[in-house]
């Protein structure tokens, strides 16, 4: 116990401002961020999904995208880092048939993406022994460790409170923790991304308590080495599990009677909410934007509101920014090689001239047209846009609170905006299986488009949204629309890619956008949705006018980048986590 505490001794200088970035990089290059983080004792990052197309793992949305970005940033910075996740042997793709999104399923094999089989671990499912394959792939100082088996199913398959979902979560937690031990790794820190990963910390608690450590010391140790990162705002919508389900899938995997008793005491009326016990098992808790950390409404077992530390999400600039833009920003000393804004980045933004911005957008448009050759719209039409055509885009997961339908409240006004500027409006985003509300809203939007001859040729829905399409649209469009209901978006990262790729941003002041000033972008607000709709149309007109004026274009881009480059930096995100996890 005492040796573990000494190992966690702080070793690097905390960054308090942008001038300290060299100190951070110097510590990273020494490979000694802390004595607790090493090749054998990595920063462990637990997630139920990762969205990493290059490595054959398809996620469901922002949580998976963020996981992949975090690992890549850790690799770039040389941080010893292990990401533990399931490998789902089946993945979902989507297409539009008669205005309705239809899911299709494809089998995938980890071997074709360079993952190597390590061995098998076992968990108990009632009276049965479930065998899980452990596979991994290494990348510099980082690795992905995945657990899988032929019947594991798809990401988010079945009901959120169902037996199969609980099995998947228990397999990740207990199976993933056993996989770490199999490979010879011990977590320096466990970051639990959302409550589906709770069972990893439970497995660690059980190991400590069943191997002779006093139960209360085991609880304290586990809590002090566990970070719970919450990515949603509302606890009430979370699924609950019954005691009977835990009797079948959870308790058989726990060796310590004290741990079983501790967990059993967390049930209320025979049910348990995983966020409550995740809050109990993690001393450190973080939200994914300043606004999110302030307003997230989560409560512990005693009913007290839980405080979250704000660590705003960031993106891997190398992955998500058009290479020509990235190279220009590095050569102009706007960002450094690790993706962090330089000390003089504000002054150097003056190098972004209208001529440069327009040239970068032409390069992005060529990329978009290339990707669209194999991505028809809802009418089966292969799209190709001119270099100077104006394109609005709404590209993000299709969820009710993100309001993709907002631009369609007045089809006549939308048509007039597009027609007066010769513009197109592209929508792309996945609808979660079972989200009937969003399915119906998308169907109605496509009906509105289909009834109008002009809109039919200028509003396009691209199905089966993925990383490839996300980058192409971000690089190739001009104006992004991001209008979640204020107070419901935890962070969002789609808008970050748009800002970095020089799009004019129209947005409500929500999620990570609220980390900055609403004067830095085209803000949408109002006392009710009617006022917001009216302001959205006004902002769409203003955004088009900005692209018609060199002066306005330069001013808008420089203001957006000045305000948001530090916010969207993945290096900044990793630095913030390390400062929080290993304080002075």
Please tell me about this protein's structure.
With 584 residues, this protein is of the alpha/beta class. The protein has two domains: 41-90 and 106-313 and 573-581, Rossmann fold (3-Layer(aba) Sandwich); 320-568, Rossmann fold, CATH 3.40.50.2000. A nine-stranded mixed sheet has the order 5-6-7-2-1-8-9-12-13, sandwiched between helices. It has a six-stranded parallel sheet with strand order 16-15-14-17-18-19, sandwiched between helices. Strand 6 and strand 7 (142-148) form a beta hairpin. Helix 3 (62-77) crosses helix 22 and helix 5 (198-210) packs antiparallel against helix 6 (215-224). The longest helix is centred in the first third of the chain and has 21 residues, at 163-183. The relative contact order is 0.11. Residues 1-19 and 31-35 have low confidence and may be disordered.
Identify the notable features of this structure and list them briefly.
9-stranded mixed β-sheet; 584 residues; single chain; 2 domains; alpha/beta; Rossmann fold; 19 strands; globular; 6-stranded parallel β-sheet
